[in-house]
Amino acid sequence: MSKKIGFLSFGHWSPHPTSSTQSASDALLQSIDLAVAAEELGADGAYFRVHHFARQLGSPFPLLAAVGARTSRIEIGTGVVDMRYSNPLTFAEDAGAADLIAGGRLQLGISRGSPEQVIDGWRYFGFEPAEGESDADMARRHTELALEALSGKQFAQPSPRPMFPNPPGLLRIEPYSEGLRERIWWGAASDATARWSAELGMNLMSSTLKTDESGEPFHVQQAKQIRAFRQAWAEAGHDHEPRVSVSRSIFALVNDLDRAYFGVNREKSDQVGIIDNVRSVFGRTYAAEPDVLIDELSQDEAIAEADTLLLTVPNQLGVEYNAHVIEAILKDVAPALGWR
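== LLM class flavin-dependent oxidoreductase ==
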């Protein structure tokens, strides 16, 4: 099955002698450069993880707009924006502007977020769950409001004495980017939230961890989640086809540097841990010579089910090396699997 193949960067930076990203400036500028390089190599997507209060990429829209201005073809996305921290209408404004700059290439992954660097960090951003709500409920409420705004809903009563002339009727969030509403993805960890995202008409973004709901291998549980999502989508009766992405750490060992970085102490099995007091299963890292990788990846049921594969990249190793990582998968692995 042909697939879109992109990269997912966490945008780590650290003033450590071995890091190629010494500062936030390095992380941002190298993210742009890697997106440009990935487009030149023929990759399909440049996606960025968003974490607050961390030495990573925090505010995504300036970065997405800059990547959009420097590229012409590649999809540009997030994986994921934590909607507990997001004002839904500001999110819709920023997303619309960045999408227009990029010519309609944004693919925005959003979610209720992951474990945080600080306690209840969303409170510092001015957000508080309503009575009876959890922070996850608040994220979903923010999401539904953002989706309405992205759809172009007109809801705001115009001033009788506006500074500038208004179009007739109620007003919507501007700038509005047509089609962006259908390019929103939900990062789902459970089968239930995958079905919820389908009901709301969001694409599915499934990561390298999942709530352990059956004790089966990670890729099997993830494939079942994808099938549950597609079934819920069909039952909802949406008039367009959904997309599904999975993320994987995959390294083709084609030179001595690859083998030095990833060829030793390779973990061949899934890992299990506790995330937010929930038992979760984490997918393994794939690192091997191309012929071995081709055999191993052909047995990954979730990759087979997805239309988009995001390669998690070690961004602190620098743009040149990460471009090599992407190129090795595109040239030495993907064609043999029918992804290209």
